[in-house]
Structures are given as C-alpha cells and as structure tokens.
C-alpha cells in the first residue's frame, strides 16, 4: 500500500535532517582544535621576468602569512599566503632612441603573490619548535608599466603553478606567542618557464 504524500515528504525531510546532522558531527570532529597563525616580513630573491630574457636575480620585499591547523600531534595542514614587491629592470622596448644611441633600460614595479597549501611536520624541543613543510598551489605575477614606457608596450601578467619546500624554527616568548624564522625554496612557472626562488621570512606566531 503506497504511503500518503504527506508521510513521504515528512520522511524525506527527517532523512535530510539526519544526514546533515551526521555530516556536521563528522566535520566538527575533524576540525583541528589547535594550531597557530603567523604574519611577518618576507624577503624574496627571484627572477620574475624571464619572458624577456632577463637572467639577473631580483630582490623583492613584502609579507607572508600562514594558518596551521593540527591534524595529529606533530602534523598540521597549512594555508600560506605571501606578497612581494620591488622593481625589475627590463630592456627598453624602443630599442634605439636615436642614431647610434641605445635607449637606457627601464624599471617596472613587480608584484608576486603565492597561494600555497600542504602538510607541515613539527616537534617541540624546550622553547623551540622546528618544522618542515611541502606546499603546493599557484603564483601570480603582475607588472605595472612605468610612465616612460610607450603606450603600445604591454607587460603581461600570468598565473601558474607554484611549489615550496622548506622549514623554520619557532621560539616561544610566552605561552601563546612565539617568534618565527623561516626559509623556503619556492618554484614558480611563469610564462612557461621555471623560476627557482628563495623566500626568507620572520615574524610573530600566535598559538591557539
């Protein structure tokens, strides 16, 4: 005997509520209840504009922030974000300004962002907490044209895969606060080529 339409609707509603409740219970059980937040100064040594054949490395300055949630003791998942800024010297697109006179190189404002995620392992030794990490994500580069560039000269932007391998050391100041020193080898793949970069950061860690 078929069930009444109202009864079927009620059963569907109760089933949906039960499924959502179970999902929320499982999710809350898996949410990390401890971790840390980091923010500080970051130095980036890179070759960002290889698409114009530049081989010299550039020094960029900026910031880095990360959020780590503990999954198990000594193992966490990290979301890492950074932005670096500086000037990049590029060849003058005009080529020759006058007969026998070569135009001087131009300087553009460069901005590189990295958005990375991955596992981090750590251990505690007294007031010290050394850690190592492997991160994966994307990088984005944008270049602001200088006022001396001709109107028809366009410097492209690009978003590409990025990876980072590195680690660091936290030193506890007081129970919830520590200072961090961190270094990472970051590989970007802008404009179809590979850039091997070094990122050094320091700042304050807040533990929760």
Q: What does the model show?
A:
There is one protein chain. Residues 22-29 have low confidence and may be disordered. The protein is 12% helix and 60% strand. It has one helix and ten strands; from the N terminus they run H-E-E-E-E-E-E-E-E-E-E. The longest helix is centred in the N-terminal third of the chain and has 26 residues, at 5-30. It has one helix at residues 5-30; strands spanning 35-46, 58-72, 75-90, 96-98, 101-102, 106-122, 128-144, 158-174, 177-188, 195-207. It is mainly beta and 208 residues long. The chain starts with a helix and ends with a strand. Strands 1-2-3-6-7-8-9-10 form an eight-stranded antiparallel β-barrel. Strands 4-5 form a two-stranded antiparallel ribbon. Strand 8 and strand 9 (177-188) form a beta hairpin.
**Fraction of residues in β-strands:** over 45%
Task: Find the structural class using helix and strand composition.
Answer: mainly beta
Discrete helix count: 1
Distance between the termini: 57 Å
Write the layout of secondary structure elements.
Layout: H1 5-30, E1 35-46, E2 58-72, E3 75-90, E4 96-98, E5 101-102, E6 106-122, E7 128-144, E8 158-174, E9 177-188, E10 195-207
Antiparallel strand pairs: 1-2, 1-10, 2-3, 3-6, 4-5, 6-7, 7-8, 8-9, 9-10
């Amino acid at each position: 005997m078929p069930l009444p339409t109202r009864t079927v609707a009620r059963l569907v509603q109760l089933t949906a509520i039960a499924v959502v409740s179970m999902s929320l219970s499982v999710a809350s059980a898996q949410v990390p209840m401890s971790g840390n937040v980091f923010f500080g100064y970051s130095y980036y040594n890179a070759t960002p504009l290889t698409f114009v054949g530049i081989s010299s490395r550039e020094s960029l300055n900026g910031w880095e922030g990360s959020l780590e949630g503990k999954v198990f003791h000594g193992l966490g998942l990290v979301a890492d974000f950074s932005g670096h800024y500086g000037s990049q010297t590029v060849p003058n697109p005009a080529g020759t300004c006058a007969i026998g006179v070569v135009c001087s190189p131009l300087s553009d404002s460069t901005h590189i962002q990295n958005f990375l995620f991955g596992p981090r392992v750590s251990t505690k030794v007294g007031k010290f907490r050394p850690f190592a990490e492997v991160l994966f994500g994307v990088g984005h580069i944008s270049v602001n044209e200088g006022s001396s560039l001709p109107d028809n000269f366009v410097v492209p932007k690009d978003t590409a895969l990025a990876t980072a391998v590195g680690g660091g050391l936290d030193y506890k100041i007081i129970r919830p606060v520590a200072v961090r020193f961190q270094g990472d080898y970051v590989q970007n793949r802008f404009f179809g080529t590979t850039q091997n970069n070094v990122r050094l950061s320091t700042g304050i860690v807040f533990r929760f």
